Amino acid sequence: MTSVIDTPLAKADMLRFATAGSVDDGKSTLIGRLLFDSKAIFEDQLEAVEAVSAARGDDYTNLALLTDGLRAEREQGITIDVAYRYFATPRRKFIIADTPGHIQYTRNMVTGASTADLALILVDARKGLVEQSRRHAFLCSLLRVPHMVLCVNKMDLVDYSQEVFESIAEEFGDFAMKLDAPDLTVIPISALHGDNIVSRSENTPWYDGPSLLHHLEHVHIASDRNLVDVRFPVQFVIRPQSTVVKDYRGYAGQVASGVLKPGDEVMVLPSGFTTRIAGIDSADGPVGEAYPPMSVTIRLEDELDVSRGDLICRPNNAPTVAQDIEAMICWMDETRPMAVGDKYAIKHTTRAARAVIRNLHYRLDINTLHRDESANSLTLNEIGRVKLRTTVPLLADDYRRNRTTGGFVVIDETTNRTVGAGMIVDAT
Amino acid sequence: MDQPAGYRASHTYRVSHLDALEAESIFIMREVVAECERPVLLFSGGKDSIVMLRLAEKAFHPARIPFPVMHVDTGHNFPEVLEFRDQRVDELNVQLIVASVPEALQAGLVREAPDGTRNRIQTPVLLAAVEKYRFDALFGGARRDEEKARAKERVFSFRDDFGQWDPKSQRPELWSLYNGRVHAGESMRVFPLSNWTELDIWHYIARERLRLPEIYYAHDREVVERDGMLYAVNEYLPKREAEQSRVARVRYRTVGDASCTAAVRSDADTIEKVIEEVAVTRITERGATRGDDRVSEAAMEDRKREGYF
Ligand SMILES: Nc1nc2c(ncn2[C@@H]2O[C@H](COP(=O)(O)OP(=O)(O)O)[C@@H](O)[C@H]2O)c(=O)[nH]1
């Protein structure tokens, strides 16, 4: 591979991806290999791993050890939390959310997928699709990860058989279609031997798709951003108390979606007042156009009462202003289940509210997709469709249309823990 | 006028990874200021905290940085770094709080470690300052690429009222919805540079033309070699008997306690050369320069549990 200095890495873009696989499908080996081949592994890390491998009596350097983090995990030989890893090629910087795949870790998968542009799901070629593969695919579709890659691993153990690969690819394709998964690519690999990881392998002459790294480098993500619906949640009001900058009042925030320009007519929610953008500022000077994920400061022509939690949009394209919210919720707390009637704090964009669970329509079995309408609570890792009533209106979009204005977290007010993740449906 | 360095408008609305990282870090800093009552930024004079300070400057422009900076001073400083710290603080017109290890030693709050290094005894000094000023959010410059135990660190990392980190009680972090709620006495460590790598930091320093303490660039220095690492000979780190010192061309990759931070051999005396060197370097920053992290594989995890940054 070429070194990062060959092309201006500083101009490369960024791809975030989440990985999922059942235990022993080879996920750690695959990540270790990606890091190793892209030179993101350092010699001292490799030496430490070689030493541990040798001490354990492994036949080869166990690349999987590169990614085992905390002591409890090493002792139990499993990973229990989302770990973030980094590597770069001349084209892209990659952030991997490495999520453990055990049945009890739906919480981690959901967390990793929430920010991912792409999900990489691993299966063992000998075993084919298992219940967990379907669950992983379902969670990625629930979280609206725009791109999905199925890696059929351990192809070396099935003699690089085209038939084995195609039958898995077909079965998964059918399933993904039912989930309405946006974009699916299937790649036959051997993480251990490196087939189709960095370059196309001679062992799979029948495969004419890209290698995994090539796909990761080239998958088109720019258009995944919503550039249509202008949504600017106000994060902070900047009002310098200074004699140098007088009468400055700017609304700081990160563009969630859409493109904003000075002169645009805008509406501020929840008040509904309209005005125009006087200017868009950054510390580097005025900004001609602001789009996701830029962090900027907007000045408005009229003096309105705008504060944190308000939202700037266009008058003819606004989110729903609602206190009755329908949502899918994934429960993340091991200490206490969610039940109808419970009250929580929620955080939605930059807005804080309190909410009461009005109704649990059903609990979803994420393996069979069966809806259990008799359920009256959600425990750790369970997902259900709920109705909430909030103390203040949310400025909400369908999660399917906008991951930023459609997602929220549920917080236990006594422990302050984050106990649930919500995705708004039917915001109308 | 020049195009702003950060955002170049284009028809494809392309965003470089540095712009994306910067936007994310600025968002994180604004969240903290909006939600926490008494934030503070930990400033060591090192390159990561220099980048963090630059991001803070950008996040609240044209207003001043709305929180103080705090230096946990081990007393084992590189003079170049202290000088740099004071100058930067003056330029930005921010308040500097110094939490002093020597003072804590004198007051009997901590005791000198047998080997004389002060990384470990920084922790109680930091925690005492947090308590004194009742800080509820501390910006730290740690990155997840630094070390294995960091890879699982949240951006908002919860610390109980003893300042301790418990990997099991960390809050899930979804989307960009950070939960900064704490009870009195508890606090958050917030890491706006979580997703940056060493190379990103250097590219950003180059792009923003940030000044760094001289010791980051190659210079001649009297050093001794210990366990394969090069240590500067200075008042905190005297030559041991039978050790031969010599002058070598070196630079520092991190600046920590002068008694246990090693230099690396280097000819890189400009930012371009440093970037080139970092891009092909095969040893982690900590592995190359932090004597204290080499003790055990779980060294960092243990220190974090005790309340380290
Ligand atoms: N033959 C073969 N073995 C593999 C391959 N990938 C992983 N393995 C082995 O499968 C086992 C489990 O791999 P690991 O990466 O730890 O799985 P994880 O639990 O998904 O992280 C290890 O013994 C690996 O060496 C592969 O492509 N071919």
Helix content of chain B: 25-40%
State which percent range the strand residues of chain A make up: 25-35%
Total E-strand runs of chain A: 23
Report how far the terminal alpha carbons of chain B are from each other. Answer: 41 Å
* Beginning-to-end CA distance, first to last residue of chain A: 50 Å
Reconstruct the topology from this structure:
The complex is a heterodimer of chains A (428) and B (309).
Chain A: E1 13-21, H1 27-37, H2 43-56, H3 71-76, E2 83-88, E3 92-98, H4 106-114, E4 118-124, H5 131-142, E5 147-153, H6 162-179, E6 184-188, H7 212-218, E7 232-233, E8 236-238, E9 250-254, E10 265-269, E11 273-282, E12 285-286, E13 295-300, E14 311-313, E15 320-331, E16 338-339, E17 343-348, E18 351-364, E19 371-372, E20 377-378, E21 383-396, H8 403-406, E22 407-411, E23 418-425
Parallel strand pairs in A: 1-3, 1-4, 4-5, 5-6
Antiparallel strand pairs in A: 2-3, 7-14, 8-9, 9-13, 10-11, 10-14, 11-12, 11-13, 15-21, 15-23, 16-20, 17-18, 17-22, 18-19, 18-21, 22-23
Helix pairs in contact in A: 5-6
Chain B: H1 17-35, E1 39-42, H2 47-60, E2 69-73, H3 79-92, E3 96-100, H4 101-106, H5 122-133, E4 137-139, E5 156-159, E6 187-190, H6 198-208, E7 219-226, E8 229-232, E9 246-251, E10 264-265, H7 271-280, H8 285-289, H9 299-306
Parallel strand pairs in B: 1-2, 1-4, 2-3, 4-6
Antiparallel strand pairs in B: 5-6, 7-8, 7-9, 9-10
